[in-house]
Amino acid sequence: MAPVSFHHDNNVCKVVLTCFKSMTWVMETANSTPASKVAVINLKLEDYRKNPPGVEEIQFRLTRLTLEPMLRSMAYISQQLSVPANRVAVINLKLQDTKTSSGETEVKFQVSRETLGSMLKSMAYIREQL
Which InterPro entries match (predicted)? Predict the structure, then answer.
């Protein structure tokens, strides 16, 4: 998937230069009780801001409590992508990050309807494991 431009209300054209490439995950098992299970998610994003394009890797942790709102948002975005005019969506994740002064990192990337559908299936399976 290559970057696609989109328009905001003020007709300013923007291009998201990072596109979803793949997602893997593992369950964190050390000292894990059912109430404290954690899934470690690894995203690979194709970064078109670099020349030549490179891969950016993002890792974050999800509990059942943090996964639920993410699944609801992704399902809503998937519904929006069912409209033929909507080819891609921009996902904007705000992740806790102890290495930044604000305590969070923002990650934006594009997904197609098919890609988002695959992500939703994986996230639903992760929810079952949590």
Answer: COMMD9 (IPR037360)
User: Taking the model in full, what pTM does it have?
Assistant: 0.77
Q: Which residue is it, tokens 């290495």?
A: 99
Q: How many CB atoms lie within 10 A of CB 56?
A: 16
- pLDDT tens for residues 6-47? 444 555 445 557 889 999 999 987 666 767 789 999 999 998
Range of the structural domain that residue 99 is part of: 5-129
Q: Taking a C-beta distance cutoff of 8 angstroms, is the pair 89, 108 a contact? A: no
Measured between alpha carbons, how far is 40 from 22 in angstroms, rounded to an integer?
14
C-alpha–C-alpha distance, residues 23 and 27, integer Å? 14
